[in-house]
Amino acid sequence: MSKDSTLEQALLDKIDVLIRLQAVTSVANFDSQKDKILFLGKAGVSPKDIAEILGTSANTVSVTLSRARNTSANKGKK
Fold first, then answer.
1. How far, in Å, CA of 35 to CA of 70, rounded?
2. What is the C-alpha separation between 11 and 26, in angstroms, rounded?
């Protein structure tokens, strides 16, 4: 690995940490895990990353997002 690519990877790692810290800060005052998941999902964060940020499983996140989409779709049908 070249010195430039090592430096680039170090910068990317630091940016990733900053993004995760911002995500945690953004949802700190949310009352429920569901609200946190929905907010981060709408912000474009992947289920895997949401799970890592919130300390839960990617499956829990995926199920929560799926249920929310289904609920929204059903409301639109009425």
1. 16
2. 22
Q: pLDDT tens digits, residue range 44-75?
A: 999 999 999 999 999 999 999 999 999 888 87
Average pLDDT over residues 14-25: 92
b/e code 26-53 from CB counts within 10 Å (16+ = b): ebeeeeeeeebbbebbeeebebebbbbb
Q: Which two tokens stand for residue 23?
A: 């995500």
Detail the DSSP E strand segments found in the chain: none
End-to-end CA distance of the chain: 58
State how many domains the chain has. 1
Indicate the pTM of the whole model. Answer: 0.77
Identity at 8, one-letter amino acid code: E
Tell me which residue range forms the domain holding 52: 3-77
